[in-house]
Give the backbone structure.
Amino acid sequence: MGVKLVNITKIFSDPAHPEKKVHAVNNANIEVADGEFVTFLGPSGCGKTTTLRIISGFENPTEGEVWISGKMVNDQPPNRRDTSMVFQSYAIFPHLSVGQNIGFGLELKERPKKEIKQEVEKIMKVMDLKDLVNRRPDQLSGGQQQRVALARAIINRPGVLLFDEPLSNLDAKLRDQMRLEIRRIQQTFGITSIYVTHDQSEAMTVSDRIVVMNEGNIMQTGTPFEIYSRPANNFVADFIGRVNFFEGTAVLSDKEGIEVRFAGGAVKKIASSSGEIMDGGPVLVTVRPESLRLYHSQERKGFIDGKISKSVYLGPVVEYEIDTGSGKPVLAVTHNPVEEGFFKLGEKVTADFNPVSAHVLA
Ligand SMILES: Nc1ncnc2c1ncn2[C@@H]1O[C@H](COP(=O)(O)OP(=O)(O)O)[C@@H](O)[C@H]1O
Ligand SMILES: [Mg+2]
């Protein structure tokens, strides 16, 4: 079931200060295809929850239209919209067993007992809960409780599943596991899903596409790859993971890309870019830390020179900061340090990158 937001704006006014207006959402246009998993990602207060509540009908937009499955639903109350919300706090009933919790929605619809039992069994099997049917919620782990909440939302076969930071109460390891679980279950049932999080790696794991928001505005909509490797602007580049910005001048652009002359004099031709880039104009080139290659400085003349000013060993990778004398350290990550070796604190290094992993911003 597809969802479409057309020019959605939400302005709140603070009851204590009616003259103060909060533009929670500004003219948002979002289209979610049937069966697609789309995530709203952005810092706290950027309007994610408000947008989700406008879809569910718990909030009315100040302007704009909400379409679900080809129908304009602005006038429909939440219970007529065929959406189901999975919350962060496990809104499961403490006095009911797991089975009763999961079957609750079907009980409400007065489905035959036999059908409810079958449906509950089926869903518990898919969700790996089947031995827990008679347990009470307080006898479950956090991850199991979250799965019960998800099963309870899914059993009604809603057209659209809405998630508002459902994993933020769980510890890191369980969160990683549940992400994959949510994605697997969403794909098993093919339910259109809209997910809210401020955690970029969570968004990357579960989503077909990500909508990056900031201060009520949509900054970019794209696949995880596009958002990370081909960011539309500085905000997206900086918010999603870590990044180096190198200043330069666009010397010449043609079909194959943009020739950029960097402050240090190096010239590289980079195929990927966002925004309108003018020959002779200033540009910012983004390079992710893992795309920078580090060399012991006597080995070669690189793109930049500097000294290792920080080194953090994380096991599979080592994170380095390189002081180039320009103020802001350059970030680099090396993989498989046991085989590829370490760089010492204070050591002189050079760094370079392959143009294919860089992206030019106007
Ligand atoms: N009921 C409300 N009344 C007034 N302001 C609100 C209300 N709900 C949200 N806001 C404001 O709208 C902005 C967006 O909030 P929200 O959608 O909850 O952000 P997010 O979920 O991205 O953290 C924030 O500035 C928040 O304070
Ligand atoms: Mg929120």
The radius of gyration is 25 Å. The mean pLDDT is 92.
